[in-house]
Amino acid sequence: MDGPSTLAFYGLGAAAVATSVATLKKRLELSQAKHRSLAGHSRLSRRIARLLPFYEYGESHFFASDGAPDEIVAGRRAGFDRLSALYQARFGETIRRTAEASKSISDLQFTDAYRVPFQYRRLVQEKLPSAALVQSSSGVTVTDLDGNANYDLSGSYGVNVLGYDFYKGSIERGAARVRELGPVLGPYHPLIIENVELLKQISGLDEVSFHMSGTEAVMQAVRLARYHTRRSHLVRFCGAYHGWWGDVQPGIGNPVPAHETYTLTEMSEDALRVLRNRRNIACVLVNPLQALHPNVSDASDSALIDSTRSAHFDKDAYAEWLRRLREVCTERDIVLIFDEVFVGFRFAKGGAQEYFGVRADLVTYGKTLGGGLPIGVVCGKSELMKRFRDDRPVDICFARGTFNSHPYVMGAMNEFLRYLQTPQTDALYYDLDRVWDDRARTLNQCLAAAALPVEIANMSSIFTVCYREPSRYNWMLQYYLRAEGLLLSWTGTGRLNFSLNYTDADFADVVDRFVTAAKTMRDDGWWWRNRNLTNKTIKRTVLKEILMHRFLGASR
Ligand SMILES: Cc1ncc(COP(=O)(O)O)c(C=O)c1O
Questions:
Q1: What is the 3-state secondary structure (H, E, C) of 195-260?
Q2: Which end of the chain is more exposed for a tag (fewer CB within 10 A), N or C?
Q3: Ligand 1 near 214 CB (within 6 A)
Q4: Which residues of the chain have pLDDT under 70?
């Protein structure tokens, strides 16, 4: 090789090495920014989920899976039988008709299968069957087919912020206002104009698009971000739920891998570094509900195999994190999306943006905003909301939906948005956190006074139940709560969503019932423990069982 070609050769070699070093560095940064839990590793978690074998406990091991002595086991069995008899006596008709309906409702079959850890499922389904049919609601209660009025702690997946009577009224009054038009789609009912104006004021953003669910609103926000930045990847944070669309659910639950999603650790410097150094990131999705348990998935009792569930809300720390995220997104032209489908309007009129004092580029809303009817909304800056390019007529960002802007939804939404403008709402939001922090504290004090191993963490009116002593049976609490007339969603004690129309008297009654339920559970022996029972030994036991069933096909 002559001089110049040798030089060129070495030059190319050096460039190649530099490129691979840079690529390697970025890869390393990315893996450092992943949360160490399985939820932080979508591919791995999906692979492991496929390998996990089903096995179940026979009746005797069901009551003794923590090695409790015979007299404790007998107490548990007696408690379980008593509960079962009470369920049949009190919820008989509701249970019978739910079981009948469940044969053909796949959603019910799914939720019913995931109320408790799968090893215990069969006996629970048989003896404490679900009662998922209800006939009426009033105040803060919902009444089942047997006529039992239960306190609603489920909050209809977070939709019920203002109380069911409010939404019944908004649906009715909204329907009356659009009745002349009926279900005409395509052209809009003029109520849409006021809705858009109010949404612009509330969000502080320029434009609005209407969709049929929160999932679709998130899909559209991400699609717009990709379209305008011409970048491929979205960043979501470990544990955060954003609906069930593939790209935002890259791990367990989605049969197809998501190739253009990074799942990073929330509230971490490493994540900010990735945002700073990668050029392919279109947007960052934040679900502010995660402030209650950063990097941990929605707490469901089916995952409650021990007592490691923990939660703690630190408003200032989360606000600081959002500010830092905002800074990096602005610096790198990354679209910051607040997914307020769950928290929107629960903490403040201006949603999480107002509550945490940080502004997003796009905001998704849903749930309660529909005034009781299905909805998804995106609010955003004009330059991000535009779905076509003036200079490239065929390069568009398509989004439609037959039922978008349905007149009846616009009617109920208008009632909701107008109500937000009233002095009553100002009064409601004023002091809201103090009210709910006090209530959570009262409940915790009562639990502690009764020496119960249960503790509440709350983010305003959203509660989650944590367990202070190692136990394999915490998931039983949901059944004792039900017996005391407290209605939970299928995820059990992981999430209690109180509507804001709970009075002090209602809440005091809930506290009494909650404490009674926990005491009864304790007296039935479920929280027995000895020195050898730790969260670590529980995990080890379960892992051993899984390995035995996977590799030896063991049966118990
Ligand atoms: C933060 C968040 N985003 C999106 C969704 C999806 O909304 P939908 O169930 O209306 O599709 C949810 C639903 O719980 C949510 O909590």
A1: HHHHHHHHHCCCEEEEECCHHHHHHHHHHHHHHHHCCCEEEEECCCCCCCCHHHCCCCCCCCCCCC
A2: N
A3: yes
A4: 1-19, 554-556
